[in-house]
Amino acid sequence: MIDLVTIVIRLFISVLLGSLIGLERxxxxxxxxxxxxxxxxxxxxxxxLTSIYMAEIYKNMxxxxxxxxxxxxxxxxxxxxxxxxxxxxxxxxxxxxxxSIWVSAAIGLAVGCGFISGxxxxxxxxxxxxxxxxxxxxxxx
Length: 141
Prior knowledge:
- The protein is mainly alpha-helical.
- The chain is built from five helices and two strands.
- A two-stranded antiparallel ribbon has the order 1-2.
- Helix 1 packs antiparallel against helix 2.
- The protein is elongated.
- The protein starts with a helix and ends with a helix.
- The mean pLDDT is about 85.
């Protein structure tokens, strides 16, 4: 069984990592910013913790797969991301924000199951990508 200290640490880490990506989106005036990314990441962590908790409670009953609930997050988060995408005569906006919401959910799931190193690496790469690649793209193209 996951103890209370581990639960608090994992939720706190997800808040920090989700906030980091959200702050970058906020700075770039993305359609989903700090609060959205924080909540998505933390919520995904809680869902993963719940999946693990349920698997531990019902382990003697067989057929419990903690990955099934996580798969629901991956599917469901697409709906939230789709709400950030705007199509106009000027083109499509919000795709990067939608992708960053999806990554925030993945980070939350990783933190929830204890894969902290993966979550940290993806957060770092995401933050650097969101911060610097647009400048590089403008210079190249």
